[in-house]
Every structure is written in C-alpha cells, then in structure tokens.
C-alpha cells in the first residue's frame, strides 16, 4: 500500500497528471472510471485565483466521483500562495499539489513552475510555509533540475520531505529539455533509493505503453506512475496498464463503438459543465486520439473539430459508429 498523508492507495498507483486544457472534470471522471487511482486538476495560477479570474476559479470545480483528487497550483510569491491555499481549501480537495515543474516560458519567466528550480531555497521555504498553512497533504511535482549541470534532485526531494511534503512526482527531464529527448528515470530512482526518503516517489515522463509502466515499477522501483500525454483521447490507458500488470497481456483495445460511446459521454459531460460553446471547443483535442488509426477518417475528424454545434458533432459520432461499428484499432502494435 502507498500512502499520501492518510490517503491509502493501492500498490504502484497510477496518477493522472495535471494537464492544461486537458484534465478538466469531464476528462478526470472518465480517467477515474478507467482505472486512475488519483487525478489532478489543471494547474491553477495563484495570482489568477486571488484576482478571481474566471478561468482560474472554474478550475476549482471538483466532484465526489473523482476522489481522491488533487488541486494543483503554481506561483512564486509566498503571500499569494498562502492566500491561494485558503481559497483552494474551500473546494475541499484531498490533496494540494505545488507545480515546480512547468517549463512554459510565461510561467517560468515569473519565477514559477520550473523557474523556481533556479532557487531551491525558495522552493523549500514556499513548500514549508504551505504545509504549515493547511491540514491538507501538500505534494510537489517537479523536474530533475533547471538544466543538466544543475541536477540536485536527490537533495531537493529530501529537503522537501523534511519540511512536510507528503509525496513527490518527478518528471524525468530538466527544464532546458522541455519535452524533447527521452525522459531519464535513473535520477528518480536515486531519489527513491535514498535511505532517508520515506514519502512516495512517483515517476513521470514517457509512460506510453503498459510495458513502460512496468519498467518504471520493476526496474526503477518507484512507488507509482504519473501519466499525462498517453491518456489524451485514451482514458482507458489506466485499465490497460493494470490489466498488463495482472496478466502480462494487453487488454483488447476498445472497439470503435466503445470509443464513440466514450467520446459521446465526454462531450456531453463537457457541455453539462461548461455549456455548449466551450464544451464543444475544449473537447476537440481529444477526437484525433479517440479515433487514431482509423483509415480514411479525415472527413469525419474535420467535421468533429470544425463544427460549433453539438448536434453536428454527435451526428459525426453516429456516422463513425455506423461506418466502422465493431472495428478494432490496436493501441499497441
């Protein structure tokens, strides 16, 4: 069993990574149904929350069926981060996660996200202050370091633990790498193998197949996997990993009919949550992946991603169902 504070999780839990414009309540609900053990919100700007910016506030929406759920926040100003904790607590999440890993320039330029990797003392002091400011477990998501020459992740993780961080998720790249090259899990294993570490150490980056998840568990010995991009349009990825762990075999890929049903439910939940305009617009990115690999699909995909009317999108789903029915497109070849 793995524990984040008092939250009990199964051995080697699978966590849905926070992803901007992806891990909203509809998508999180689908991932939870499909085997995710913990889900995280999109990352939320502390400054945006304090200003009561509508987009930031909307990201605080969480639902009982998602639990355990973490709300992830980012910022570099202590006063703002503490005010944000107070705002976030009102949404009653199970976990508050601090983003010390986002590599995007507009975040980094403010000293937030991965930008704070240039100032480890600030990173630690911010975490300590937030731990003292709430009874909710504080966790951290970060990267190996700012660049290859400044990797101190073993020391950083231990210091975060010592000020009360309850778990750490580490992306196996530096900020300088952004998302290029291969993720390096060896330094994450060094964190886990540090004799002084006793909080869960989760790995993140390049978990694209069940085999990769098993490698992270059995070769690198980490406590769990935080999975991001592989789940976009494939919320069933979590169940595929768990099935592989149990049987050593791949779970049969969903049929086109099953994919249509999940896409339909995703769109309907998005409409119910955000209304028809945003609901249609913000689910478009998922359709290419939901139906990836279907031959001669361009016409249907274009209709799905260009129509502003929910009825047209649902009609496009019906056409795909009628045309391709029980066809199976393998997720892993």
DSSP, total strands: 11
Stated plainly, the CATH topology of the largest domain is called TIM Barrel
Q: Strand portion, in percent? A: 5-15%
Mean pLDDT: 90
- What distance separates the N and C termini? 32 Å
Structural class: alpha/beta
Q: Which segments are poorly predicted (pLDDT under 50) over 5 or more consecutive residues?
A: none
CATH 4th-level superfamily of the largest domain = Aldolase class I
- How many domain modules? 2
Under the CATH scheme, which class of the largest domain?
A: Alpha Beta
Topology:
Layout: E1 2-4, E2 7-9, E3 14-16, H1 25-33, E4 38-40, E5 44-45, H2 46-50, H3 54-58, E6 69-74, H4 78-89, E7 95-100, H5 105-108, H6 120-133, E8 138-143, H7 153-162, E9 168-171, H8 186-193, E10 201-204, H9 210-218, E11 224-227, H10 237-247, H11 256-274, H12 276-290, H13 298-306, H14 310-324
Parallel strand pairs: 3-4, 3-11, 4-6, 5-6, 6-7, 7-8, 8-9, 9-10, 10-11
Antiparallel strand pairs: 1-2
Helix pairs in contact: 1-11, 4-6, 7-8, 9-10, 11-12, 11-14, 12-13, 13-14
Identify the notable features of this structure and list them briefly:
11 strands; single chain; TIM Barrel; Non-ribosomal Peptide Synthetase Peptidyl Carrier Protein, Chain A; eight-stranded parallel beta barrel; 333 residues
